[in-house]
Amino acid sequence: MINAALHALSDPTRRAILARLALGEATVGDLAQPFAMSQPAISQHLKVLEGAGLILRRVEGTKRPCRLAPQGLADLEDWLAQLRRAFETNYARLDDLLTELDKETPK
Amino acid sequence: MINAALHALSDPTRRAILARLALGEATVGDLAQPFAMSQPAISQHLKVLEGAGLILRRVEGTKRPCRLAPQGLADLEDWLAQLRRAFETNYARLDDLLTELDKETPK
DNA sequence: AATTTATATAAGTTAATTCTTATATAAGGA
DNA sequence: TCCTTATATAAGAATTAACTTATATAAATT
């Protein structure tokens, strides 16, 4: 799932869609409007975001209002936190060592 | 910059490389070894990671030891935290709205 | 019932990505 | 110096991604 999430987030248009959704629910039309891009293109991006668990949609007549899915960030946060922990436990010594090496090579 | 970072992270091989580097410094050869992939392929991934500010390299004779770039990690965390806040505030607001709607529709 | 509105899906195109193999470069060791 | 090791770069092939236009569907409006 982290793969789907990061793939979804790697596209600037999709990130802009998320930013817009942070302001509140929006329909596909609302979301498409600010972009110089066709409606199907936006629908395709929304499918990717939904597949990654980053947005939710409901049915309201012919509209499909979208909103952010807070749970969708959890896996990504876990992954990043894990990377951070490993980094912290394994790099303390290395950083000191590299600093020392720098001092030994003055100029 | 966040664009380059997220693009870099969208590839599973590159994420695996970062995970390996979280355990400590490694040369290109070290990094290539666990993968069923040629050395040039790994070098190309490393170039992407370096360009995204996620790794640092030093020169040590003919070797090029790589390590995680603390700033790259920090920037990512900041971005993700910001995204999390956006997700949460929107969720809270929507929650309030739905609660209000509930009150207005008593049973 | 016919038309319009909101969205989805299909098919095709172009461009970007990720590999490959072949080759270049530069430091280390015999 | 010659050979080997470690890595980078170039060029090309295969795959995937991100668009497009055309069309389908289903609810809302007239």
List the domain count of chain A as a whole number.
Answer: 1
Give the helix level of chain A as a range of percent. Answer: 55-70%
What are the low-pLDDT stretches of chain A, counting only 5+ consecutive residues below 50?
103-107
CATH fold assignment of chain A? Arc Repressor Mutant, subunit A
**Biggest sheet of chain A, open or closed, and with what strands and sense?**
2 strands, antiparallel
Integer-rounded radius of gyration of chain A: 21 Å
Structural class of chain A: mainly alpha
Helix run count of chain A: 5
The CATH superfamily title of chain A: Winged helix-like DNA-binding domain superfamily/Winged helix DNA-binding domain
Mass-distribution shape of chain A: elongated
From the coordinates shown, what is the CATH architecture of chain A? Answer: Orthogonal Bundle
Describe the structure.
The structure is a homodimer of 107-residue chains. With 107 residues, the first copy, chain A, is mostly helical. Chain A has one domain (2-104): Orthogonal Bundle (Arc Repressor Mutant, subunit A), CATH 1.10.10. Chain A has 5 helices and 2 strands, in the order ααααββα. Chain A has helices spanning 2-9, 12-22, 28-32, 39-51, 74-104; strands at 55-57, 66-68. Chain A has a two-stranded antiparallel sheet with strand order 1-2. Chain A is elongated and about 60 Å long. Mean pLDDT of chain A is 91; it is low at 103-107. At the A-B interface, α1, α2 and α5 of A face α1, α2 and α5 of B. Chain A binds a DNA duplex (30 and 30 nucleotides) through residues 7, 11, 13, 27-29, 37-41, 43-45, 47, 61-64.
